[in-house]
Design brief:
This protein is an all-alpha fold and 204 residues long. 61% of the residues lie in helices and 0% in strands.
């Protein structure tokens, strides 16, 4: 069954889908480069879309503009990483990722064989990597089709507006999960529509 048919089974989401022009839906191009994606995510956290690429470019220039191996990162002292514009916390988180992949001899190809929840359990062992970050990895880096991220501010905001929700905190999260059950096995696509809806609502 196509995603249009499944998602249209939810009348409110169907109305949203009818409102969103296809060019406003983010296109996913999976790279399956999980380690690299995680490091880029840490570099980009809390930075604007203009600043993040600049800091990432400085980080890569430390290693001759190539993406560094785990050993190269672990052999780089914190102050050198900081010289790229990274905070102490970010520099340590990047080292944590490199150490996890190196010590566990973990390869991107190993992760491709695991189920979504197994990947979440595995990668959230790394200090500095939370569930939301791994959910973004699953969606945008690995192209997994059935990921739902109620911790995401954009998704949560869109759903509260669309479904006129009044719950808060844990009760709200429970309600979001219950609504999203109708979207299986295409919850990732539903999330793309929710982000597009929120972005369009921001426009004057």
């Amino acid at each position: 069954m196509s995603y249009e048919k499944v998602l249209s089974g939810d009348p409110r989401l169907r109305d949203v889908m009818l409102q969103i022009p296809s060019e406003h839906i983010y296109k996913i191009s999976p790279s399956n480069q999980v380690r690299e994606y995680l490091i880029k995510s840490i570099v980009s956290q809390q930075l604007s879309v203009k600043v993040a690429p600049i800091i990432l470019d400085r980080f890569r220039k430390i290693y001759g503009s190539r993406f560094p191996s785990n050993k190269s990162i672990l052999n780089t002292d914190i102050e050198t990483l900081r010289s790229a514009g990274l905070s102490y916390q970010k520099a340590n988180y990047i080292r944590n990722i490199a150490e996890h992949f190196e010590v566990n001899k973990l390869k991107n190809s190993d992760l491709a064989l695991l189920e979504d929840e197994e990947i979440i359990a595995r990668l959230t062992q790394i200090k500095g990597v939370g569930r939301w970050t791994v959910e973004m990895v699953l969606m945008f880096c690995m192209g997994r089709p059935d990921v739902f991220s109620p911790l995401d501010y954009g998704i949560r905001t869109a759903m509260v507006d669309i479904y006129k929700l009044r719950q808060e905190k844990k009760e709200l999260e429970k309600k979001l999960y219950a609504i999203a059950e109708k979207w299986r096995p295409y919850r990732t696509t539903a999330c793309l529509y929710l982000w597009a809806y929120k972005d369009l609502k921001k426009q004057p």
